[in-house]
Amino acid sequence: MSMMPVQDAIDAMLSQVMPLHATEAVGLTQALDRVLAQDVRAEITVPAFDNSAMDGYALRSAEATADRLLPLAGTALAGHAFEGVTPAGHCVRITTGAVLPEGLDTVVMQEQVQQTEAGIRLLHAPKTGEHVRRAGEDIAPGQLLLAKGHRLSAVDIGLLASIGLAEIAVLRRLKVAVFSTGDELVAPGQSLPAGHLYDSNRYVLQAMLQRLGVAVLDLGLLPDKPEAIRQAILRASDEADVLITSAGVSVGEADYTRQLLSELGDIGFWKVAMKPGKPFAFGSLGSCWFFGLPGNPVATAATMDLLVQPVLRRLAGEKRPQPESLQAIATEPLKKSPGRADFQRGYYQQQNGQLQVQAVGKQSSAVLSGAAKANCYIALEQERGQVAAGESVQILPFYQLLR
Ligand SMILES: Nc1nc2c(c(=O)[nH]1)N[C@H]1C(S)=C(S)[C@@H](COP(=O)(O)OP(=O)(O)OC[C@H]3O[C@@H](n4cnc5c(N)ncnc54)[C@H](O)[C@@H]3O)O[C@H]1N2
Ligand code: MOO
Question: What value of ipTM does the predicted structure carry?
Fold first, then answer.
């Protein structure tokens, strides 16, 4: 079977999946990482009134010449406006956030005046409008603040609160089932018999899914027994929108997952031209989508990040910007054979005014310790060969799921 280029594999999956429709209202404290089901427009003006940006004195700039003495007409505190008219030649004591008194146009910081018994004396003349926050300078009514399909960040949630919304309509949370398979695997916390290793993939996957804001259904660590795997696949297809498995998609005798999936569902199996992550299965089990990831731990994480993530985001209704890609100078040679795109684990930093990158740790797809030191992939094109020190390479900073 010929290998499919990475972008073709992503495009093929994206063209098949349709976003969720169902929506729900959630309170702001539950809204982080949820995807907006509708555009959000402001119904109010923010700030709603002209107010002071500083603790100081509000005055009329036309009367504010240096050295002039301005008697105090009263006080405006945040939440307690100064009522009435300020007589000519007077000022009002004001605190940050307080309503600017009627007729006054400028605020002078208290550090810029001399306070005397008879009033304040200006050290220099202020600019008209200085330290005044104008009504509507943040948000005007009707303004589009956040678009449908936007994933809510912490700052977005503050923005929603600032226009007075207590709840927001979001798309239903995607439900993703996960299991790992392998008679050689043992759950962390257990003792390790000879010839065994700990199941790490299910933990990497669940952590990445948590960052994506989806609901996770953990179907556990399964032995290489077709019946156990069959039951887990059936449960996932009943209860979840997506099933993600690790291992069992290659060509070994005990690679049952792939066989069972083609029996129970409609499975496309591809060899994707990427390293790590060559064997990869995608398909459907009724209304449940399925991703079969290769078992090697770095291949699991990389295929989840690079191939599955865009599809999950689309299913969740998210309109996602392209991940950031930068150019950096390789400070050391990089091994590469043509035929597959490499996603080497690298560490990049700014040095001598340029971005520099080097591969970290062993690059085997079974070695997680190198990946744990990395902050980016060094993405080497499919047909590219060895990279010499000083050559420019593309890097993909780890984005959201892996850091
Ligand atoms: N003859 C061939 N052999 C292999 C090929 C191939 O094309 N022809 N591809 C290799 C590549 S590349 C990968 S990746 C693996 C993928 O194999 P599977 O997805 O079937 O996974 P397994 O063989 O079961 O396991 C691979 C490796 O990963 C370890 N593993 C599995 N699950 C976990 C887990 N949950 N946590 C930690 N480590 C796990 C497992 O012990 C194996 O060492 O196939 C190659 N072989
Ligand atoms: O997916 Mo494998 O190397 O490409 O580990």
Answer: 0.94
